[in-house]
Design a protein that fits this description.
By secondary structure, the chain is of the alpha/beta class. The chain has two domains: 9-222 and 328-351, Spore Coat Polysaccharide Biosynthesis Protein SpsA, Chain A, CATH 3.90.550.10; 228-283, no CATH class. 45% of the residues lie in helices and 15% in strands. It is built from 14 helices and nine strands. It has a five-stranded mixed beta sheet with strand order 3-2-1-4-8, with helices on both faces. Strand 1, helix 1 (22-30) and strand 2 (37-44) form a beta-alpha-beta unit. Helix 10 (246-266) packs antiparallel against helix 11 (270-283).
Length: 362
C-alpha cells in the first residue's frame, strides 16, 4: 500500500535584534507534533547576537536553516525565506511569539476538511506579556470559506504568527509588501497579504488559542500612528479596486483607530493619545457624530429596559443564547495570569494529547 509522505511545512521566522526571545520561539516551533518541518530563520541585520544564537540553536535541531540580509524590514525578511522555502505550506511566526505544540498538526487537519484540501488555516491567539503571561485573548470567530469582505471589515486573524498558507499562492500574490515600510507605514503587511489570499482561496478556522502573540511597549504593533497609516494605505487599495466596499473599508479604518485610541488610553500612553486624538477628529468627524448619537440611543434604550423590568407582570428568565454563544461555550478560554506554556502543558498532562515529536519525523 502506498502511503503519502507527510506534508513539508516551512516555518518562516524574521528576526531583528531578537536575541532575548528567539530561543523560546524556536523551542515552540521545534516542539510541534507535526515534525516534518523546514525552519528558516532570517536575521534582518541584527546587531545583538541574533545570528549567532540562531546558528547555535541549529546544532540542536538540524531542520533549522539560518539566512541573513541587510536590515530591510519584516516583509523583505519573510519574502526571502518564502523564496528559499521547500515546503508546500508557509507558517510564519515572529521571533518573539509562541505556538501551541499542536498548532501545525491541527491546521493541517483543518485544511484536509476543505473540498480540495487547499486554502488558508488560522486559529485564535492569546495575548502574552514579556514574561509569556496571558493577559487577554482574541475574539473567537469561526469565519470560513469566502472571507474577503469580512477581512476588509476586520483582520480577524489579528497577527502575522498564525496562518498556514500555501506557498504557491503566497508567491502568486507577490508575498508581503515591502513598500509599506518604504513609506514609513510598516505594520499591515500581513493584513494586505491575507486580503490577497482571500480573493483566491477558502479560509478555515481551528477553534482554539494556539498562538501566543506578544504585546510589548515599543514593538511594531504598539506604534499606533504608523499602524494606522499602514492600515489606511491597505484600505485605499481596497477602495480603488472594489468601490462597492469603500464604505466598509472606511468603517474598518474608524474602528481600527478607535481600538488603538482605547489601547493608548488604557495604557496611559500620552504620546500616542496626543498623536491619535487630532488625527481621529480630522479624519472621522462624521463617524464620531454618528457614534455619539448611537451611544445616546443605546443609553436611552437601556434606561427604558430597566424601567420596564420594574413593572408588574414583566417576563422573567434570560433570552435564549444565540447559536454562536452556544458554540463558544464548549471551548476552553485562556486564563489571564497564567503562562501560555503552562496552559497547554497542564492540559497535556490531563489528556495525554501532546507528545513531543521526534525531530525530523512526522
Amino acid at each position: 500500500m502506498n502511503v503519502d509522505p507527510p506534508l513539508l511545512v516551512t516555518v518562516v521566522i524574521p528576526a531583528y535584534n531578537a536575541a532575548k526571545t528567539l530561543a523560546n520561539t524556536l523551542r515552540s516551533v521545534s516542539n510541534q507534533t507535526h515534525g516534518h518541518l523546514e525552519i528558516l530563520v532570517v536575521d534582518d541585520g541584527s546587531q545583538d547576537g541574533t545570528y549567532e544564537l540562531a546558528n547555535e540553536y541549529r546544532l540542536q535541531d538540524p531542520r533549522i536553516r539560518v539566512l541573513r540580509q541587510e536590515n530591510g524590514g519584516v516583509a523583505r525578511a519573510r519574502n526571502l525565506a518564502i523564496r528559499e522555502a521547500a515546503g508546500s505550506y508557509i507558517a510564519p511566526i515572529d521571533a518573539d511569539d509562541l505556538w501551541h505544540p499542536c498548532k501545525i498538526e491541527l491546521q493541517l487537519r483543518a485544511l484536509a476538511s476543505l473540498p480540495d484540501g487547499h486554502g488558508v488555516a488560522y486559529n485564535w491567539y492569546a495575548a502574552i506579556d514579556v514574561n509569556d503571561v496571558i493577559f487577554a485573548h482574541s475574539k473567537p470567530v469561526l469565519y470560513k470559506g469566502d472571507v474577503f469582505e469580512i477581512m476588509v471589515r476586520e483582520n480577524f486573524i489579528g497577527n502575522g504568527s498564525t496562518p498556514l498558507m500555501p506557498r504557491s499562492d503566497v508567491l502568486a500574490c507577490g508575498g508581503y509588501d515591502p513598500s509599506l515600510r518604504d513609506q514609513n507605514a510598516e505594520g499591515c503587511e500581513d493584513h494586505k497579504l491575507y486580503l490577497a489570499l482571500a480573493e483566491r482561496l477558502r479560509f478555515v478556522p481551528v477553534p482554539d488559542f494556539l498562538t501566543g502573540y506578544r504585546f510589548v511597549q515599543g514593538n511594531m504593533s504598539s506604534n499606533a500612528y504608523r499602524m494606522l497609516k499602514s492600515h489606511a494605505l491597505v484600505m485605499a487599495d481596497v477602495k480603488k479596486r472594489y468601490p462597492h466596499l469603500a464604505a466598509a473599508a472606511t468603517i474598518a479604518e474608524y474602528d481600527t483607530a478607535r481600538w488603538y485610541f482605547r489601547k493608548a488610553l488604557s495604557s496611559k500612553d500620552h504620546g500616542q493619545i496626543k498623536k491619535l486624538a487630532p488625527m481621529i477628529v480630522r479624519r472621522f468627524s462624521l463617524r464620531l457624530v454618528i457614534h455619539g448619537v448611537r451611544l445616546i440611543w443605546r443609553s436611552a434604550k437601556s434606561r427604558a429596559r430597566r424601567l420596564a423590568n420594574r413593572l408588574p407582570g414583566r417576563m422573567t428568565g434570560k433570552p435564549p443564547a444565540p447559536p454562536i454563544a452556544e458554540a463558544m461555550a464548549v471551548f476552553a478560554f485562556p486564563k489571564n495570569g497564567t503562562s501560555f506554556r503552562d496552559s497547554f502543558e497542564a492540559a497535556a498532562d490531563q489528556t495525554g494529547v501532546f507528545i513531543k515529536p521526534h525531530v525530523g519525523g512526522a
